[in-house]
Amino acid sequence: MIEHFNFDIRLIFAILNGKVSAAINRKLSRNFRQNGLEITPEQWTVLIFLWEKDGVTQQELCNATFKDKPSMTRLIDNMERQHLVVRISDKNDRRTNLIHLTRDGKGLEEQARVIVNQTLKEALQGINSEELKIGQEVLKKVFFNTKD
């Protein structure tokens, strides 16, 4: 079916290789910094999960953010240094640490959500809801066709 399309293979690979997400991450980073928030888009993905469900294992965070364990460990280490999260050993299994938000981590939520919403609004400018829906469906199919 796809052989009937006349497509720009460079553009498709640019999109699928993360150029779009890298551009959005750069914009989001800049918007966080300009608004005095010292967090990264990577940290945002962890924070948004913890705002919904605080006190989770590192593995849960890996699954939710599609990151491997070493990357998540580094990310949590940095977030602990910034006093955004704290590791607390699980009462039921002392070998497991649960990641909890600190007061500082909780305090960022409202401002961070406003900045993210503004960044998405900028990124999606000129795209109507039908185009967005189609784009999401297409990218979801590509993701499921290629994930291991």
Structure write-up:
The protein has 148 residues and is mainly alpha-helical. It has two domains: 1-36; 40-114, Arc Repressor Mutant, subunit A (Orthogonal Bundle), CATH 1.10.10. Helix content is 64%, strand content 8%. The protein contains eight helices and three strands. It has helices at residues 9-16, 19-34, 41-52, 58-65, 69-81, 103-107, 109-123, 129-146; strands spanning 56-57, 85-89, 97-101. A three-stranded antiparallel beta sheet has the order 1-3-2. Strand 2 and strand 3 (97-101) form a beta hairpin. Helix 2 packs across helix 7 (109-123) and helix 4 crosses helix 5.
How would you summarize the topology of this molecule?
Elements: H1 9-16, H2 19-34, H3 41-52, E1 56-57, H4 58-65, H5 69-81, E2 85-89, E3 97-101, H6 103-107, H7 109-123, H8 129-146
Antiparallel strand pairs: 1-3, 2-3
Oligomeric state, counting identical vs distinct chains: single chain
Query: What's the CATH H-level homologous superfamily of the largest domain?
Result: Winged helix-like DNA-binding domain superfamily/Winged helix DNA-binding domain
Please work out how many helical segments DSSP would assign.
8
User: What would the CATH topology of the largest domain be?
Assistant: Arc Repressor Mutant, subunit A
Give the biggest beta sheet: 3 strands, antiparallel
Strand content: 5-15%
Structural class: mainly alpha
Number of structurally distinct domains: 2
Give, in spatial order, the strands making up the sheet with the most strands.
Answer: 1-3-2
CATH architecture of the largest domain, by name, is: Orthogonal Bundle
Indicate the percent of residues in helices: 55-70%
What gap, in angstroms, lies between the N and C termini? 23 Å
H/E series: HHHEHHEEHHH
Indicate the mean pLDDT: 90
Q: What is the CATH C level class of the largest domain, in words?
A: Mainly Alpha
List low-pLDDT spans. Answer: none
Radius of gyration: 18 Å
